[in-house]
Specification:
207 residues, alpha+beta, single chain, 7 helices, globular, 8 strands, Glutaredoxin, 8-stranded mixed β-sheet
């Protein structure tokens, strides 16, 4: 029988090795273990819905370009939003690896989807640090990393119900939207790229 990694074992492995080497298979393994051995928590990949209007704050991209958040999310593309910080050595590397695998799985549809990774440590996460982080995870076109002020980042997190006063207590969460309304689908935990892909296909009307 296949042996699945526990979260602590997987994180230890990440710290001892290059964190960007975590594979989608490892994330799937953690999600499986989480689902089967931690019944008191929501199963990874079990979606919930929320209606949230993001504040129209000004952010900086990894290239140093100023952009209003509402402009970034209102070009009609489906959205995948997550929160990260570049010095994170636990869940953020696996969150970003999942997004990398998602972008690969989208294939020809990748340019039809806008992926947003927003820093929850913007004072440290300068555009140059975000650019290096994005390069580490081979972020393709359509996957942008954003920073700004502490207050602006907090407003976004609060709007999405993801704010934690201590960044070290943040949990992995992904938000999907069709990009045309304030309705979002929320996925808690280190879900698999296939779970997010299925959610996106539903929003994009794929069969």
């Amino acid at each position: 029988m296949k042996k699945y990694l526990t979260l602590s074992a997987l994180l230890t492995a990440c710290l001892l090795a290059n964190v960007s080497s975590v594979s989608a298979r490892d994330v799937d393994a953690w999600a499986y273990d989480h689902h089967n051995h931690h019944h008191e928590m929501h199963a990874a990949g079990e979606p919930s819905t929320l209606n949230a209007t993001l504040p129209n704050v000004q952010l900086l991209t990894q290239d140093g370009n100023k952009v209003m958040l509402q402009d970034a999310i209102s070009d009609g593309r489906p959205l995948v939003l997550s929160f990260i910080f570049t010095s994170c050595q636990t869940v953020c590397p696996m969150t970003s690896q999942t997004l990398l695998q998602l972008q690969k799985k989208l294939g020809a549809d990748a340019d039809r989807v806008h992926i947003l990774s927003i820093s929850i440590d913007p004072e440290f996460d300068t555009p140059s640090r975000l650019k290096a982080y994005a390069a580490k995870y081979h972020a393709g076109a359509g996957w942008d990393h954003y920073t700004g002020t502490e207050d602006d980042s907090r407003q976004i997190q609060v709007a999405m119900g993801a704010y934690r006063a201590d960044k070290m207590n943040h949990s992995p969460v992904y938000f999907l939207s069709d990009g045309k309304s304030a309705d979002w689908v929320r996925y808690e935990g280190l879900v698999s790229p296939d779970t997010l892909l299925h959610g996106l296909h539903a929003l994009m009307g794929a069969h």
